[in-house]
């Protein structure tokens, strides 16, 4: 998945506005350097993507900020009760460091 993400950043040079490329590069650098601000950097990229997309719709404003970005994943956990299915999905917010 990381390689696909990096491939998409490279392809951004073909079709993305300058500011999206800058934010994507900042996120990739933050991940590479092990920054504790990865979630914020991802939020800044998502916000810039929204701004670009919203520019193509009748509504062009957003009040969201990069701090409000959250990335959720589904993880599978074992259930100890044998009468239950052996796995249960959990919806969890990724920690800022991950």
From N to C, what is the helix and strand string?
HHHEE
Lateral arrangement of strands in the main beta sheet = 1-2
**Rg on CA atoms, Å:** 17 Å
Q: DSSP strand (E) fraction? A: 5-15%
Gross geometry: globular
- Helicity range of the residues? 40-55%
Q: How many runs of DSSP E, i.e. beta strands? A: 2
Distance between the termini: 14 Å
- What number is the mean pLDDT? 78
Unreliable stretches, pLDDT < 50, 5 or more residues?
none
Give the SSE map.
Elements: H1 2-15, H2 18-32, H3 38-54, E1 72-78, E2 87-93
Antiparallel strand pairs: 1-2
Kindly list the characteristics that best describe this protein.
single chain; 98 residues; alpha+beta; two-stranded antiparallel ribbon; 2 strands; 47% helix
Produce a short descriptive summary.
With 98 residues, the chain is an alpha+beta fold. It has 3 helices and 2 strands; from the N terminus they run H-H-H-E-E. It has a domain at 2-69.
Question: Could you describe the 3D structure shown?
Answer:
The chain is α+β, with helices and mostly antiparallel strands. The chain has a domain at 2-69. 47% of the residues lie in helices and 14% in strands. It has helices at residues 2-15, 18-32, 38-54; strands at 72-78, 87-93. A two-stranded antiparallel ribbon has the order 1-2. Helix 2 runs antiparallel to helix 3 (38-54). The longest helix has 17 residues, at 38-54. The radius of gyration is 17 Å and the shape is globular. The mean pLDDT is 78.
């Amino acid at each position: 998945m990381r390689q696909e993400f990096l491939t998409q950043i490279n392809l951004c040079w073909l079709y993305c506005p300058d500011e999206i490329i800058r934010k994507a590069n900042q996120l990739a650098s933050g991940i590479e350097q092990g920054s504790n601000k990865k979630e914020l950097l991802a939020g800044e990229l998502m916000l810039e993507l929204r701004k670009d997309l919203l520019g193509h719709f009748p509504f062009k404003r957003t009040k969201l900020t990069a701090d409000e970005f959250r990335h959720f994943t589904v993880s599978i956990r074992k259930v100890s009760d044998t009468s239950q299915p052996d796995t249960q999905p959990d919806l969890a917010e990724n920690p800022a460091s991950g």
